[in-house]
C-alpha cells in the first residue's frame, strides 16, 4: 500500500516546479554562455585583433580580454612576439633545428650562379609578425608568399655572383642584401612582417662527383703543404749538421796549425840551444851527440833486433849471443 | 502561477526565437569581414558590390551575395622548360601576386577564384615563355654586371713568397669575363609583368608582380655543367700538387747545393789554415837551421836515426865508427 501511495507525490512535485525551473535554467544557461563567450585569453606572446561585425575595431594585448558576445565581435590571436623560422633547402626532422635527422630539398636549393655554375645553397629566414592587422587581412597565403619571395630573392642574388664568391667572400653581403630585398617586397605587399635575419647555412657544390672534385682541391692543398714540408724537413735535417761538420774541419785545421807552429818553435828552440854549445866545442859535441844517438839506437831494450856482422869477416863475433841479448 | 500561463510563456518564447532566426537567416543583413569583398546580384544581375568590411544590407530572399577575398593572392606557376634565345633549354619557375581589384568585372568575366587562377595560367605562362625565349640565358640568370667587377681568386695559403703566391693564383684562376647584360632578371620580370598586365586588367584582376623563383638547367645540360665544374676543379688541384712537387725539388736542390757549399768552403778554409801553418813552420825551421847548415845536418840526421832505427831489425856492420874502439883502433885514425 505504501508503495502505491508514495510515487504520486514526487510526480506531482515535478509537475509543480518544472515550468518555472525550466525557464530559469534556460535563462541561466544562456547567461552563462553569454558571459563565457564575452571573455577571451591572450597569451603573453600574442596580440589579438578584434573585429566588430566584420570590421576592424581594435588590437588588444595579453591578459583576459572582453568582447561583445553573440558573434558581434570576433577575436583572432596572432603570435607577434615569436620569432619564426623558415628553412630552405632542408627541413629539420621533429622541428628540431639541428642539422641531424633532416631531409634535403634539392629543388629549392640548387641554383645557377652568375658564371653559370650550379651550387646548392641552404638558408633560413627568421621573421616576426610586426603588424597583426596587416598579417591577418592583407595577404591570403602568407607562408607561401614568404617562401616564394625568399627563394626568388636568394636565387637572384646568387645568380648575380660567381660561384667562388658565393661560397666564400660574399656570404655576409648576400645575407644582408637578401634581408633588405625581402623586407622591401613584403612592405610593398603590406604583409606586416619584419625579417629578423637571413642566415646562409650550407653552401656546397652539388653532392656527388662535383663535390668530390671541390674536396680534392682541398686535398691537393694539403698535399702541396706536405711536399713543401718534406722539402724543408730534409733541408733542416742536412744543413745544420753540415754547418757543424764545416766548423769541425776548420777547428781541426786550426788545431793542426797551432800544433805545427808550436812544434817548429819548440824544435828550433832546442836546436838553437844545442847549436850554441856546439859552436863552442864542435868536435866534442859532435862526438857526444853521435855516441849518445848510437847508444839509444843499439840499446838492447829497443824494440827491433840487432844483428852485428863483420863486413870482411876478419873478426869473429858471437852473433847468437848478441841476438839473444837483443831479445 | 498555473501551468497554463507557463505553457503560454514557453510557446511565445519559442515563436519569438524561431522568427528571429528566420529573420536573421533570410534577412537584410550580412557581415563582410576584413579581407573580403562582395558582389550582390538580384536575379543574376549585379546590383551592388562592397569592398569595405562591416554589416551590409541586401534585399532579403531575392538578393544573392558572392564573397571574394580582397587579400593579395598568390599564383604558383608550374616550372616550364623554355629555350632561351641561344636555344639552351632551362626550367623557369615563376610565381605571381594578384588581387581582385574590380569584383563586378571579375564576377562577369571569371566568376570563381579557381577560374581566376586558370585564366592567369594562360596569360602568365605565355608571357613568361615569350620573354624568356626572346632573351639570352645570361639575361635571365644575372641581374647586373657586377660579376665582372668582382675579383675572384683562390685562397692561396701557406705559400712563403709573394711571387709564388702570384704564380699559384695565375695557375688556378678560373675567372673569365662574362658577357655584359642589358636587361637582367628584374628587367625580364618587369617585361613579363607589363605584357601580362594588359590582359589581366580585362578580368578585373590587378597583377601585382611576377617574380622568377628559380632557374635551372635542363637535366642533360646540368650533367655537362657538372663535368665542366669537375674539370675546372681538377685543373686547380693539379696546379697545387705540381707546385708542391716543384717546391720539394727546389728544397732538395737547395739542400744539396748549400751542403756542398758549406763543406767545400770549410775544406778550403781548413787547407788554407794548414798551409799558412806549414809555411810559418817551414820558415821558423829555415831561419834557425840556416844559421849553421853543417850542424843542422848532423843534428837532424841523428834525430832522424833516433826516430827511425830503434824499431827496425838491424843488421849492423862492425866497421861503423861506433865500433872502432872494439877492435882496438885509436880514436884518431
UniProtKB/TrEMBL annotation, chain B:
GO terms for cellular component: membrane. The lineage of its organism: unclassified sequences, metagenomes, ecological metagenomes. It holds the Pfam family Band_7. Belongs to the band 7/mec-2 family. HflC subfamily. Its main location: membrane. Residues 27-229 form the Band domain. NCBIfam families: hflC. This is Modulator of FtsH protease HflC. The chain crosses the membrane at residues 12-33. One of its GO terms (biological process) is proteolysis. Keywords: Hydrolase, Membrane, Protease, Transmembrane, Transmembrane helix. One of its GO terms (molecular function) is peptidase activity. It comes from bioreactor metagenome. It is found in: Membrane.
